[in-house]
Amino acid sequence: MEIGRAIRERAEMLENTSLSMDFSWEELVTLAGYMGTLKYRKGMTIFEEGDREVFMCVVVKGGVNVLKKDERMAPKLVTVIGLGKVIGEMSLIDNSPRSATATAAADTTLVVLSKESMDRLFREKPHVGLKLLKKIAYSMSQRLRQTTGVLVDYLERES
Predict the structure, then answer these.
(1) Domains of the chain
(2) Fewest CB atoms within 10 Å of the CB: 14, 25, 67, 109?
């Protein structure tokens, strides 16, 4: 099967991410056909808390700082999303405004899936879309478990 160079390059980038364990090469190529690539210089904003644009990103080079505003509206570093991880997936699920700001921790390359492309993926390749949705749910579940653990540790220190 002959595939476009850009699609093959995105599939190769995805092959080194957390998605690759759950997708065959053919499924990665299919998924890559619905995605785009964005590059950010260190310090550039990927999205801001409150933004309504809906897309998720897979970090294929560099990293992403996740910042949340405190009660004085000062940004606080929550976590750093590293190579191969997904960010922004919550917006694809609930269509709510961004809950945090994301900035490039270094020169960063992201493979991006928009809401429109995800909807098209579900219509045209539902088996790949379902696998992606399961992966997103798993990722969100893992982050919630991690956050709950951090919260318990914090509460124990405070008492």
Answers:
(1) 5-116 (2.60.120.10)
(2) 25
What is the spatial distance between Cα 82 and Cα 105, in angstroms, rounded to a whole number?
9
Query: Using an 8 Å Cβ cutoff, are 111 and 14 in contact?
Result: yes
Report CA-CA distances (Å) from 4 to 14, 48, 128: 15, 33, 19
- Reading the block at residue 100, the tokens are 């945090």
- For residue 159, what are its two tokens? 């008492």
User: pLDDT tens digits, the chain, 159 residues: what are they?
Assistant: 445 688 999 999 999 888 888 899 999 999 999 999 999 999 999 999 999 999 999 999 999 999 998 889 899 998 999 999 999 998 888 988 999 999 999 999 999 999 999 999 999 999 999 999 998 888 888 878 877 777 777 667 776
Please answer whether residues 52 and 72 qualify as being in contact, where contact means their C-beta atoms are separated by less than 8 angstroms.
no
CA angle 48, 91, 29 (to 5 degrees): 110
Q: Is this model's pTM higher than 0.90 or not?
A: no
Burial 98-114 (b: 16+ CB within 10 A, else e): bebbbbbbeebbbbbbb
- Cα–Cα dist 89/126, whole Å: 18
